[in-house]
Write a structure and sequence with these properties.
This protein has one helix spanning 3-11, and strands spanning 29-31, 40-42, 60-70, 74-88, 91-96, 99-106, 115-122, 125-133, 139-147, 155-158, 161-164, 176-187, 191-205, 233-234, 248-257, 263-274, 279-280, 291-292, 300-309, 316-325, 357-367. By secondary structure, it is mostly beta strands. The protein has a single domain, classed as monomeric porin ompg (Porin, Beta Barrel). The strands form four sheets. It has a twelve-stranded antiparallel beta barrel with strand order 3-4-5-8-9-12-13-15-16-19-20-21. A two-stranded antiparallel sheet has the order 1-2. The protein has a two-stranded antiparallel sheet with strand order 10-11. A hairpin with a 2-residue loop joins strand 4 (74-88) and strand 5 (91-96). Residues 1-21 form the signal peptide. Keywords: Signal. It comes from Hallerella succinigenes.
């Protein structure tokens, strides 16, 4: 970032904040800071944010996160460099370029045998802008746009019988997404409290005025005049395969302890909930048959511990996250399109609590 930003931050207790960008499978980003502190991070589901002293001295700031996620029958790795700069002392502009791999079991139906699948590559790019509001520099509003640059129609199988992989194995979501965030920092004697609220709204745009797959997967369908296949804009998050991502809200609370020289310890909790039930496309290539996602979670928490090694030039951040979510409710056995059971908020799924975790390592630098 620009050198004069450092001086401005010092005048405003060193506050910096950037935007929470929606995790496609991909990646939301959020930056938070307080007096003499700054930071950012990513991961809507894991709740991990970089909280620490930050880095100063350049026109462009780079933050790189590497995350490994593990569950009972899956594993994943993401590598997400983010580049940002400040056109003014109170405004930050950034871009996030996610790379990822996914491995795990895939079982479309309970009467089918599970198979192991692996995917990887470039995901959905996110752009964000944030603006400090108020005279004290403690509050920030931000807006982020995620665009569907990652492939979302990855398929496997023989030439005669191919199947789309589940959304968690795709590199992108197939939809655009806007995230509006509010963040606030309150300093204490040896630390700071960090508060965040975010609303995310997926939508879809067709510059050609029709479904991307009309002439390939859905060439046997009569799509004329059907709003799902012939459109320029959808205000809701349905992609061209029929998968649906509902709007969502999230809130986080974190405390950073800065009483130990050259280290910042942080403890946080993030709550998120979709405002609707997610739908998945048909796994059969050439078939348009979306249905409610059997793995839909009505709510989720993430408990996070982070530690920044506060070096002046290249700070390093380590974080560990444990998710806790409600138990999945499958659709009615007689009607797999009935989503009413999935709307219910159930008790926590403690059986999966210690079976899922995310470990993150990050580094920051500034240059130019």
């Amino acid at each position: 970032m620009k050198k004069y930003w450092t001086l401005a931050l010092a005048a405003l207790c060193g506050f910096s904040l950037s935007m929470l960008v929606p995790e496609s499978p991909a990646t939301p980003w959020e930056s938070i800071g307080g007096c003499g502190a700054g930071g950012s991070g990513g991961g809507a589901s894991d709740g991990i944010k970089w909280i620490g002293q930050g880095v100063n001295g350049g026109l462009v700031e780079t933050e790189i996160f590497a995350k490994a996620s593990v569950g009972e029958n899956y594993s994943g790795f993401t590598f997400t460099p983010r580049f940002s700069f400040k056109p003014t002392w109170s405004t930050s502009v950034g871009v996030t370029l996610p790379f990822m791999t996914h491995s795990g079991e895939v079982q479309y139906r309970t009467n089918q045998a599970p198979v192991d699948r692996t995917t990887g590559g470039f995901g959905d790019i996110s752009f964000d802008v944030s603006q400090i509001v108020g005279g004290g520099g403690a509050a920030n509003i931000s807006l982020a746009l995620t665009i569907p640059t990652g492939q979302y129609d990855i398929k496997r199988g023989t030439d005669a019988s191919q199947e789309f992989l589940p959304s968690s194995f795709q590199k992108g979501s197939g939809v655009y997404s806007l995230a509006l965030g509010w963040n606030y920092t309150r300093d204490t004697e040896n630390g700071m409290w960090l508060y965040s609220l975010t609303y995310t709204h997926p939508f879809n745009v067709s510059f050609s005025g029709e479904n991307e797959f009309n002439d390939s997967y859905f060439k046997d369908y009569d799509t004329d005049g059907d709003d799902r296949f012939e459109y320029h804009f959808k205000w809701y998050g349905e992609n061209d395969l029929g998968g649906y991502t509902p709007p969502s809200v999230s809130a986080s609370l974190a405390y950073a302890y800065r009483g130990q020289e050259n280290f910042v310890h942080s403890f946080g909790i993030t709550f998120s909930a979709p405002l609707g039930v997610a739908w998945i496309p048909s796994e059969k290539v050439g078939t348009y048959d979306p249905r409610p996602d059997p793995d839909h979670k009505a709510w989720s928490f993430a408990f996070v511990y982070g530690l920044e090694f506060s070096r002046a030039d290249y700070p390093i951040f380590l974080a560990f996250s444990l998710p806790l979510h409600d138990k999945s409710n499958g659709a009615d056995a007689d009607d797999e399109y009935d989503e009413s059971a999935m709307r219910k908020w159930d008790l926590p799924d403690f059986g999966a609590f210690l079976e899922e975790w995310t470990l993150a390592v990050g580094i920051k630098a500034s240059f130019l």
